[in-house]
Amino acid sequence: LVSPALWDRVQDIMSGRGTNHPHPQKHHFAFNGLVYCGVCADEGKVHLLVGEIQRAKYIYYHCNNCQRSGRKAKFVREQTLDAMMTEHLTHIP
Q: Measuring CA to CA, which residue among 28, 74, 33 is closest to residue 53?
């Protein structure tokens, strides 16, 4: 029904699907992948906070799991996280 050349061509196209094509990020979020959600941690779960830009200039972090599960997700400004991290790092000898 299909020629071997066409079959090979289609297979080559199909094998390229689903691969991760890196897209450059438009914004750099300093704490992505570093800070865990405290609400989820209290429940024994591990979920990272993700950054989001609001009002085109403010960076906030929140937990996607809390947002999906219907809990009121707390948004934390990046400046607040920065101050908290600085405070904790100053106590390290």
A: 28
- Report whether 66 contacts 40 (CB < 8 A): yes
**Chain-centroid distance, C-alpha 57:** 18
| Letter string b/e over residues 54-91, b meaning 16 or more CB atoms within 10 A of that residue's CB | eeeeebbbbbebbeeeeeebeebebeebeeeeeeeeee
Could you read off the pLDDT of 70-92 as tens digits, one per residue? 887 788 899 998 998 899 888 88
Q: Are strands 76-77 and 58-63 parallel, antiparallel or unpaired?
A: antiparallel
Which pLDDT band holds residue 46 (cuts at 50, 70, 90)? confident
d(CA 2, CA 39): 56
Distance CA(44)–CA(85), nearest Å, equals 22
Element (H or E) spanning 73, and its range?
none
